[in-house]
Amino acid sequence: ASTQRPEDVIQRYMQVVAGVADEDCIICMDQLSNPSGYETPSSEGGALNVLPDAVGKFIKCGHTLHMLCMLAMYNNGTKDGSLQCPSCKTIYGEKTGTQPKGKMEIYSISQALPGHPDCGTIQIIYSIPPGIQGPEHPNPGQPYTCRGFPRFCFLPDNDKGRKVLELLKVAWMRRLIFIVGTSSTTGEPDTVVWNGIHHKTEMMSNLSGHGFPDPNYLDNVLSELASQGVSEDCLQPA
Length: 238
Ligand code: APR
Ligand code: ZN
Ligand code: ZN
Hints:
Blueprint: H1 6-13, E1 14-17, E2 55-58, E3 64-66, H2 67-75, E4 83-84, E5 91-92, E6 103-109, E7 121-127, E8 131-132, E9 143-144, E10 151-156, H3 159-173, E11 178-181, E12 191-194, H4 217-226
Antiparallel strand pairs: 1-2, 2-3, 4-5, 6-7, 7-10, 8-9, 11-12
Helix pairs in contact: 3-4
The structure holds adenosine-5-diphosphoribose and zinc ion (2 copies).
């Protein structure tokens, strides 16, 4: 969680607007001309300056909603100092996730992947040991399990594959690759699962559908990374 006060995060990325059009707030579905249904949260630091009838406009995408509704949504999340517009999903700041502690290792394999005959292979190994859920997880204080770890993943070792690797390293640092939740494959709750950034877990076979060949894979994973706020602008110029 961020050390910044939630209302400061809201005010960094939203501007108060006056004379609001007759539109609905996408969070509470009430009209923007009515006050937010959420109460101003009491804070240790004194009175909050987000008023129930304040309407805010996001500084980049321009979408408008009750500032207090956005504050409630922020307080309900990981409170990492970033905001995501609920209308268009534009990310403000640096989105982070709740992936538990573990390690990401990278190896190079000379063998080619099906569909990528002209290059070798990058192997990523994710290892996450079981542990106890923190306050950011669904059931704090309860254990979480880790099935199928270490997980072995593969990328073609070409320019685009190496770019995906660099972005996956950023996503790992930001704790976005895995979450603690319920596995849609096994139904098991309180376990470490993939978080919407697809990985290829089969190298020479494709029994699960998560193998090669897949001509669209690198583009698909680039757009999944982008939807979590991880794109080329996150990489330092080499
Ligand atoms: N390999 C890669 N991705 C997978 C796999 C797989 N074998 N199975 C499912 N996914 C993708 C799904 O497409 C979905 O988008 O992971 C996402 C979350 O699915 P869950 O079933 O909730 O994920 P999880 O329980 O973490 O893993 C399912 O993936 O890597 C394997 O060993 C792992 O067998 C497990 C399987
Ligand atoms: Zn609202
Ligand atoms: Zn927006």
